[in-house]
Amino acid sequence: MGTEGQGGASAEWLAQTPEGVVLSVRAQPRSSKAGIDGILGDAVKVRVRCAPVDGKANKELVETLAAEFGIAKSAVVFKGGETSKRKRILLRGVSAAEVERRVLGS
Q1: What is the pLDDT of residue 11?
Q2: Which tens digit of pLDDT belongs to each residue from 72-97?
Q3: Closest to 42 measured CA to CA, from 106, 105, 103
Q4: Are 47 and 34 in contact (CB under 8 A)?
Q5: Where are the beta strands (DSSP E) in 11-75?
Q6: Cα separation, 9 vs 11, whole angstroms
Q7: What string of DSSP letters covers 45-59?
Q8: Do residues 18 and 88 make contact, with C-beta atoms less than 8 angstroms apart?
Q9: pLDDT surpasses 60 at 7
Q10: Is the separation of the CB atoms in 57 and 77 below 8 Å?
Q11: Residue 101 contacts by C-beta under 8 Å, 6 or more apart in sequence?
Q12: How far, in Å, CA of 53 to CA of 39, rounded?
């Protein structure tokens, strides 16, 4: 798991908001397996198996994040970057501390 650019409570890839936690994500489509793969610069690297065609990779990204954080798929909301590899995603129902713990594997 990559750990470049790890941060504490002020991590650039994580922001607590009144709605929930906003995560900066760098999606890697066409991977051999799906899951969180650590920090890449100022974003969380998330691998998905699907190609970025017809929204399939985004759908798998939502499913992967929901499973990783133990939240409903409806609690994973795009805030920006749906057509880009870099995305901003709102996670409802999970704390910033829990997100950081799971991403950093501590």
Answers
A1: 78
A2: 999 999 999 999 999 999 999 999 99
A3: 103
A4: yes
A5: 14-16, 21-28, 35-40, 43-47
A6: 6
A7: EEE-SS-SSTTHHHH
A8: no
A9: no
A10: no
A11: none
A12: 25
Q: For residue 76, what are the CA distances in angstroms to 2, 53, 100, 106?
A: 23, 20, 16, 22
The rounded distance, in Å, linking the Cα atoms of 106 and 51 is 30
pLDDT recorded at residue 100: 92
Residue 36 burial by Cβ neighbours in a 10 Å radius (0-12, 13-18, 19+): buried
Encode pLDDT of 21-30 as tens digits. Answer: 999 999 999 9
Q: Considering the entire predicted model, what is its pTM?
A: 0.86
Q: Considering only the C-alpha atoms of the chain, give the largest distance between any 2 of them, rounded to a whole number of Å.
A: 36
**What pLDDT, in 10s, does the model give residues 65-74?**
999 999 999 9
Query: Which residues make Cβ contacts (< 8 Å) with residue 64, sequence separation at least 6?
Result: 34, 35, 36, 46, 48
- Please, what CATH class does the domain formed by 2-104 belong to? alpha beta
